[in-house]
Automatic annotation (TrEMBL), chain A:
Binds 1 siroheme per subunit. It comes from Mesobacillus selenatarsenatis (strain DSM 18680 / JCM 14380 / FERM P-15431 / SF-1). Siroheme binds at residue 680. Belongs to the nitrite and sulfite reductase 4Fe-4S domain family. This is Nitrite reductase [NAD(P)H] large subunit.
Length: 807, 106
């Protein structure tokens, strides 16, 4: 019979211990885990990125439900253990569940320390420790305006930045005279404060909170000096407290944390503690790297493998707030036994301080430039004697003439840490790269865990890849990277297609020596596009090489249903069309009918097999809301009805949309036409936008309102609609011929340069040729929804769902 | 309840298009058939192993691999395994082609 292992706590340290255990002994235990949060194990370090809006909660899940299932782990989530019976070797949960154990791990982590001041139990007072806290803050930010964060340390500042991102005004209250005083000296702290003030934070230093004001919900804070501030959300980020109550109640020796020896054993046989709840040699750790080291030692112990004892960790910290690049480790203050090297470049906002004791680095503070943090941290942890080095060579990486980074990697010993969070050494990474033929940073992470926690070491991993693979890495990963199937970049591929007159995808992959015969989801659509662009006279499109939405002529939704968006030229419709859309929505029981951002109506949540019939009932052309093509032309009402309008914006918009619809482009293309500079159609953030002025049109290009916001640049001012159409054609075709697949016009224009594009489009002869090729290309398109309705082959291949009954 | 495995005819071979998934529900199970370009037919559960779910019928097919249409996971049709750096596995079914008839065992 397998031994029973029970773990109380389902967080990063505990689950990592189980992962390490599987490496030693995949099948040694029957495992049960209790976690009081209703989530699988997630990356707690990344909570601040969730709050700051960079990641979703789903993104930070590290072990999903499937992982527990696949490893045969019985997980009770949302269930807390309330009792440990040491004699019977049994735990009891708050649901009354009793589970026996042979070995028990306590990994209960820690909680936010809530200041014991009057009012701290009011509504609107939260810690910053888990998903629930995060969700509370996000919810409250929608309703309330003023937040106060108590605590000017790492956690408090990250929370404050998040609340700023959520649109709140933020006061940061700190007891000490300097921010992050445990990690930064005065100079660095002052620089950080200035930067954060610029970002919009307000600081109240040397303030001791005496009372939280308000009735049911918090309304403000009162300090010990009698002053008050208003606040309708208070975040407590003054520190963490190990969750030890259960252990204490069960008679396990507890000091600040649950006291463990070098093998993570408590004073009770068969009970272990790991993570933030454990106290080792009088230290309770709150950072991930030591916790993972502890997990490794405990896993070896549980697997019965002799392991090195855990001897404590020196920690380095960084702040995850954009614009504040800082790193700190070890001792930061000076005393009579230390001497330090300081560099303070006020002009560039860079500060470096290396504290030296007995000819060895004892502490590091870096602000504004942290690229040497790994190297210096290594020197610190390895206690390297630096008496032979000059101060310059300590502060700057070895090597000259740009050899810096890679040379740095070459000089690293194999046992040196690359990823501090996960304890992965250079040697481990190099070996993983060689044995598993890894070529990307993500693959290295998948194989070794390196870079999977805070992500700071990713650039170093990239350097190691380049050092290990040599030129191979350069060519396969850095050269415009079309995909892993080839080392050729876009320019080379297009040149080969032209030179050899190639006309289909398989031929390209065959002739150019693709490593995967039929390509991948990245290169297949790209090659299909390039072939269609080069062979504009008559390319036979390869539908099965298109991205799924283009293949299906509908947008796939996350549950496998699709959306239908009919064309509505220039955003102009009729009562009859609206009726038809309404009837179709009712007939097919469409779950969501919504106006889209591009001035039309979307029908969402449609079953795939209903698509052709719906299209037929609608009798409208596809709006291509799914395609790398012209999406919509947004228009304002214009001179027809608006008293400010100087031009016929709807007329130009409709003409543009009718002419250029269905055209394949490297990425989606959006247009806007406004009849006056008030710009109601937002022409300034479109791939090409028009603004009506007295006597003509201004044409703007390269705008983007999406992920990378970019204001469009003025290309030209023209007098007539015909000129506007002609320039648009030439512009689109030049973009089609020179952009890489999936490159929007905004980065394309940055790359090509506005002046260059202006020059090309100013040349009448070039414009004419570009338009000729474009017009020829436009001849090859058919309306795809009509095609599907009329062609049973297409219907059967793409839209049918077969059904077989089992006797 | 003890389940016995049954062999079920799910399609005519010549009705299966090359390199495009065909969704088929068999006694309540959602399955998708892929005819690879070498002629072999493979069957997997029509559910993406990605934790956010989704279907696989409209996946891009390349040799013995498919690419999940929503999350771009690369999945082997031979054993259902998601390829690194992603992880996961989709259920596969045993397929037999006899004459022009395609059978799977469920």
């Amino acid at each position: 019979m397998k031994k029973k292992l029970v773990m109380i706590g389902n967080g990063m340290a505990g689950v990592r211990t189980i992962e390490e255990l599987f490496k030693f002994q995949p099948d040694g235990y029957e495992i049960t885990i209790f976690g009081n949060e209703p989530h699988p194990n997630y990356n707690r370090i990344m909570l601040s990125t969730v709050l700051q809006g960079d990641k979703s909660i789903e993104d930070i899940i590290m072990n999903d439900w499937e992982w527990y299932k696949n490893h045969g782990i019985q997980l009770y989530s949302g269930e807390a253990v309330t009792e440990i019976d040491k004699e019977k070797r049994q735990v009891t949960s708050d649901q009354g569940r009793k589970v026996d154990y042979d070995e028990l791990i306590i990994a209960t982590g820690s909680s936010s320390f809530i200041l014991p001041v009057p009012g701290s139990d009011k509504k609107g007072v939260v810690g910053f420790r888990d998903i629930h806290d995060c969700e509370m803050m996000i919810k409250d930010s929608k309703q309330y305006k003023k937040a106060a964060v108590i605590g000017g340390g790492l956690l408090g500042l990250e929370a404050a930045r998040g609340l700023l991102n959520l649109g709140m005004e933020v006061d940061v209250v700190h007891l000490m005279s300097h921010l992050m005083e445990r990690q930064l000296d005065e100079t660095a702290s002052e620089m950080l404060k200035k930067e954060l003030e610029n970002q919009g934070m307000n600081f109240l230093l040397e303030k001791q909170t005496a009372e939280i004001l308000g009735d049911e919900r918090v309304t403000g804070l009162r300090f010990s000096d009698g002053s008050e501030i208003q606040a309708d959300l208070v975040v407590m980020a003054v520190g963490i407290r190990p969750n030890v109550q259960l252990a204490k109640d069960s008679g396990i020796f507890v000091n600040r944390g649950i006291v463990v020896n070098d093998y993570m054993e408590t004073d009770v046989q068969n009970i272990y503690a790991v993570g933030e709840c454990a106290e080792h040699r009088e230290i309770v750790y709150g950072l991930v790297a030591p916790l993972y080291e502890q997990g490794k030692v405990l896993a070896a112990n549980l697997a019965g493998i002799p392991a090195n004892p855990y001897e404590g960790t020196i920690c380095g910290t960084q702040l995850k707030v954009s614009g504040c690049d800082l790193f700190s480790a070890g001792e930061i203050g000076d005393d009579e036994g230390t001497k330090s090297i300081k560099v303070h470049n006020e002009f560039d906002g860079i500060y470096k301080k290396i504290v030296i004791r007995d000819n060895r680095i004892a502490g590091i503070v870096l602000y504004g430039d942290t690229k040497d943090s790994n190297r210096l941290f290594r020197m610190l942890t390895k206690r390297e004697d630096i008496s032979g080095m000059t101060s310059v060579s300590i502060l700057e990486a070895n090597g000259c003439c740009g050899g810096g980074e890679a040379g740095d990697v070459a000089a690293m010993a194999d046992d040196e840490l690359v990823c501090g969070c996960n304890g992965v050494t250079k040697g481990t990474i190099v070996e993983a790269i060689r044995t598993n033929e890894l070529t990307t940073v993500d693959e290295v992470g998948g194989c070794t865990n390196a870079g999977r926690s805070c992500g700071r070491c990713k650039s170093l991993i990239s350097d190691i890849l380049s050092y290990t693979l040599g030129d191979q890495y350069d060519t396969s990963a850095k050269k415009a990277g079309i995909c892993g199937c080839t080392t050729l970049n876009k320019e080379e591929i297009v040149a080969e297609i032209r030179a050899k007159g190639m006309t289909n995808v398989r031929e390209v992959m065959n002739v150019l020596g693709w490593s995967q015969d039929e390509g991948c989801s990245k290169c297949r659509p790209a090659i299909n596009y390039y072939l269609g662009m080069v062979n504009y006279g008559g390319y036979k499109d390869e539908r099965d090489s298109r991205l799924v939405n283009e293949k299906m002529h509908a947008n796939i939704q996350k549950d496998g249903t699709y959306s239908v968006v009919p064309r509505m030229y220039g955003g102009v419709t009729t009562a009859a069309d609206l009726k038809k859309i309404a009837e179709v929505a009712e007939k097919y029981d469409v779950p969501l009918v919504k106006l889209t951002g591009g001035q039309r109506i979307g029908l969402f949540g449609v079953n795939k097999e209903d698509l052709p019939a719906m299209w037929e009932d609608l009798g409208m052309p596809s709006g291509y809301a799914y395609g790398k093509t012209l999406r919509t032309v947004k228009t304002c009402v214009g001179e027809k009805f608006c008293r400010f309008g100087t031009q016929d914006s709807m007329g130009l918009g409709i003409e543009l949309e009718k002419k250029f619809e269905r055209l394949d482009t490297p990425h989606k293309v959006k247009m806007g036409v406004s009849a006056c500079p008030r710009n109601c159609a937002e022409s300034g953030i479109k791939d090409i936008g028009f603004v009506g002025v007295d006597g003509g049109w201004e044409i703007y290009i390269g705008g983007n309102g999406g992920t990378d916001l970019r204001a469009a640049d003025l290309l030209d001012t023209v007098k007539t609609k015909e000129e506007a159409m002609e320039i648009t054609g030439a512009y689109l075709q030049y973009y089609r011929e020179t952009a890489a697949y999936l490159e929007r016009t905004a980065p394309w224009l940055e790359r090509m340069g506005l002046e260059h594009v202006k020059e090309v489009l100013a040349d009448e002869n070039k414009r004419k040729q570009l338009n000729e090729r474009l017009d020829k290309t436009l001849e090859r398109y058919n309306e795809p929804w009509q095609e599907a309705i009329q062609d049973n082959g297409i219907k059967e291949k793409y839209y049918q769902v077969r059904s077989v009954t089992v006797e | 309840m003890q389940m016995t495995k049954v062999r079920v005819k799910v399609a005519d071979y010549d009705s299966l298009p090359e390199r495009a998934g065909q969704a088929v529900t068999v006694g309540g199970e959602n399955i998708v058939l892929f005819r690879k370009s070498n002629g072999d037919v493979k069957a997997v559960e029509n559910r993406s192993p990605h934790r956010k779910g989704g279907t696989l019928a409209d996946a891009l097919v390349s040799g013995k691999f498919i690419y999940c249409p929503v999350y771009d996971l690369k999945i082997s049709l031979d054993d259902g395994k998601v390829q690194a750096p992603d992880t996961g596995e989709v259920k596969t079914y045993h397929v037999e082609v006899i004459e022009n008839e395609v059978y799977i065992t469920i």
